[in-house]
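Budget justification aside, the reviewers requested a transparent look at the raw inputs and outputs of the sequence design task funded under Objective 1. We therefore reproduce one unedited record. The lines immediately below are the C-alpha cells for a 91-residue chain.
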C-alpha cells in the first residue's frame, strides 16, 4: 500500500517546485502507511526547501503541519501557527 502515493510524491518533487500541493494524500491508506507517506512528504519538502500545502479532513494528517487553516462553509474559521512544527507531536 502507498506505492502510488510514493510515485506521485517523486513525480511532484523531481522538478524541485517551490510549493507542493497534496490533496488528501493519505485518504485511501491505512494508518501506518499514511504515517509513512506523511513522513516522506514532510521530510522531502523540508530537505528541498519547498512549501507543503496539505488538504485533509484527517486530524492525524493535520498534526504534521506547521500551520493549520480551518475552512468551514467556504470561509476561514481558524488560522494558527503551531509552535515546534507539529500539532500533537505526530513525528
Amino acid at each position: 500500500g502507498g506505492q502510488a502515493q510514493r510515485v506521485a510524491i517523486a513525480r511532484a518533487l523531481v522538478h524541485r517546485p517551490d510549493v507542493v500541493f497534496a490533496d488528501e494524500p493519505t485518504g485511501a491508506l491505512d494508518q501506518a502507511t499514511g504515517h509513512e507517506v506523511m513522513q516522506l512528504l514532510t521530510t522531502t519538502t523540508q530537505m528541498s526547501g519547498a512549501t507543503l500545502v496539505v488538504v485533509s479532513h484527517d486530524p492525524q494528517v493535520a498534526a504534521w503541519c506547521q500551520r493549520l487553516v480551518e475552512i468551514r462553509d467556504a470561509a476561514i474559521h481558524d488560522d494558527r501557527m503551531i509552535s515546534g512544527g507539529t500539532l500533537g507531536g505526530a513525528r
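The first helix runs from residue 3 to 13. The two ends are 20 Å apart (CA to CA). Computational costs for records of this kind are itemized in the attached budget.
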